[in-house]
Amino acid sequence: VRGGAGGIGSRVRRPPLPKPDDRRYLGCLVVLGIARTPAEGHDLLDGETVFQTADGTTRWYSMPYDRNSVMWQLSFPVGEEAAAALSAAGPGALKREAVRRCGKWHDPIPSLLSGTPDEAVTGYPVYDRPVLTEEILDPDHGSCVTLAGDAAHPMSPFKGQGANQALADAVDLARCLYKITWRKTSDADAGPKEGKKAKVSAALRKYESLMMERSRVKVEASAHAAKFLHSDVAVAEGNVTRGGAAAALLDNKKVLR
Q1: What InterPro entries does the entry give (predicted)?
Q2: pTM for the whole thing?
Q3: In the predicted structure, residue 126 carries a pLDDT above the cut 80
């Protein structure tokens, strides 16, 4: 068995798939940083609170990282070439852009920015890929190569599902392979005799079926979130979730104020 789990740029993914560079740019850049918690403290920096702030274009998200630091994520719409150039410019340029956009926002955002060393900043354009199909994954019907995690279903970070889906992939893959290697079956259950490779391939196709069905909705929802979290939906008023606000606007319904 050969498994590709090397992220969106997985080298294992490239040979078996007809379109290895079918990435879809989702129209935004994400900047990540880790800040030392300001000594003066703040209600939003109690070590337990997650908060986000948005203005309809730019979005800030913070969460505790460890006892003395906070992880923050900044995202905003930008063209693909500009996003790639800013990412390539390095940590200093990324932090300057974060300060330009959010340096005068409410506390404790300015303090978090000032408490973030350049070397603790990274940033990248956001991509996903179309959801795989059985025909694309195994066109020859018998391969012992498979994919997992972002190598199979890269998605935007805005639903928090990338790592979760990768972990679920690992469990499903292990279960499918376990069933053909260790489970005892009666002669009645065994079915026709197959070669070892055929059994492994069948187990991988079962795993891929589970993986594709499970991850499809997450990929699509994450792409949708990349749009509405950087739009007026993010600041729409109403006793609804952001997803509910987005659905209301997409259905041309008024969000209750």
Answers
A1: FAD-bd (IPR002938), FAD/NAD-bd_sf (IPR036188)
A2: 0.82
A3: yes
